[in-house]
Amino acid sequence: MKSLLRRPFRTFLTLAALATAIGSVMALVGVADGFADSFRGVYESHQVDLVVSRQGSADRLSSSLADDFPQRISTVDGVARAAGVLLETLSIEDQQIYGIPAMGLRTDSWLFADYGLEPHVDSASKVVEMELNPASPEGDEEAETIYLGQNLADRMESKVGDEVMLFDEPFRVGGTFQSGSIWENGAMILPLSALQRLTGREGQLTYINVVLDETVEREEVDLVVKRLEAIDPKLLALPTDEFVDTDRRMQMAGSMAWMTSAIALLVGAIGTLNTMMTSVLERTGEIGVLRAIGWPTRRVAMIVMLESVILSLLATLIGGIGAAVLLSILSSTESAAGVLQPSIAMSVWVRGAMIGLGIGVVGALLPAYRATRLHPTEALRHQG
């Protein structure tokens, strides 16, 4: 490290460039992974085992299924319950809030009851009791009611009983809900018939959530999948993890994050290479002395490698902290609330450390090789 401190300004610039590169990678990958984890939480929070969508859909989140499939799927051996979801994106024009995820659910389904809808707390901090009868069919009055995720309700500053305009139609806020998924907390729930009417998708669903019977073993899941797909050739049943991981939006987000990060990593690697090569050239005489007193080439190379790795790991720490602060700030903004995770997952930190370690090693290979090829007598000329 002494050699790096000899040129503090140069070391600082290299550290800043490398920290920016690694921090960019961690931020972009963290956003992509956080989005996927948030969407995966939509299913995990309701213990969904399988997701059924339309076979051959280019975009599974905009697929179309008949809304009578959940009832047929519920009768399949090994299925405990099934609930259909119509997924759309709506906007509240008068509040200039756009791109709100909207889920259409039957109000008599287990999935609707599973959200544990809670009424808004008034100024006196008294909870207004709201009774929901999950066995009752959807009526006209219920069809004009919407339910807001807590993040969306806070963003809209809405409470139970407030009126919200959707496509110039008035809806009453019937309650708010808190989910284990950040994505859902920024969404709204409408009765299925209401969302179908608003979007012109009468009789349609986007996908169907399926919960398997507790007696179904892991090795029997494929058999249940075959039974579900045998109902109709248009059906595609996938485990929740596979449904999320193979979604085109998730794959594009991950690919774009890594493609953008590759440029930053290249700049960081070149900066590290330049710093370590210059350090070796400036220490030619010192290296000659070490070789003359008996230091083996392996030990000389190890010093160069160690300095480069320490520089890279320090940059990883600084870049990771910067990325975490940036994501925390972004996730608190109105436009990103309910979409971005406010922190970086441990897996992203591990990948960042591995990238930093890799850059440190790669950036030191050529300088270390240069140091080991110096002949003691030639190096000592520089000392003199």
From TrEMBL:
Domain MacB-like periplasmic core residues, every copy: 11-221
Lineage top rank: taxon: Bacteria
Chain segments annotated as transmembrane: 256-281, 302-329, 349-369
Record-linked Pfam families: FtsX (PF02687), MacB_PCD (PF12704)
GO cellular component terms given for this protein: plasma membrane
Membrane found in the keyword field: yes
Keywords, alphabetical: Cell membrane, Membrane, Transmembrane, Transmembrane helix
Annotated ABC3 transporter permease C-terminal domain residues: 259-376
Membrane topology of this protein: Multi-pass membrane protein
Subcellular location: Cell membrane
Stored PANTHER family: ABC TRANSPORTER PERMEASE, ABC TRANSPORTER, MEMBRANE PROTEIN
Protein name: Putative ABC transport system permease protein
Source organism: Aporhodopirellula rubra
